[in-house]
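Field reference: sequence -> structure
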Amino acid sequence: MEYYDLGLYGYMAVVIAPMFSPSDDPVTSLLSAPSVFGTAYLIRPLGGIVFGHIGDRLGRRKALMVTLIYTSVGSTAMGLLPAPAQIGVWATVLLVLIRVIQGFSAGGEVGGSATFISESVPPHLEVTYGSFTPLGSTGGFALFEVTGHRNRSEQAIAVLRRDRRSRAQHRDHEAEAGL
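Structure field:
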């Protein structure tokens, strides 16, 4: 689940980018999305180290529960995050911070869940069952692409066009008002 939330940002970057990195050029907005997306991947190894240690000391189940809570808090915060029009540059700063939290917890979840599963099954099935964790998240993304890619792309293009029209109307309004 944690890895799904982490990757969902990548799929929705074409919608999120114009909201949190507004620019007159939609391509510039879209190109800013990978930098925010990448922050989660940069912090993942640290999350793996910290939660691996927690899992070794306190148990894998407790470590996995903490990663679940961190990711849930991050995802909820992302859903409630105000737009830059409301709080300015702080919206983008908070988005990056949320992505760091999600990446940190995903780093602990990926290795921790595979290890938890491998340690919970008979020795001759460790490899088979241990592969279910990456297979589940990757398979989920593949299924999404097969079933929802076209609709998501059309929605993203509509958002970019609406955003461009809104900015043009705002500039026209400012020009008429003499601002």
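Note: The helical segments are 2-20, 26-58, 60-80, 84-87, 90-119, 126-130, 132-177.
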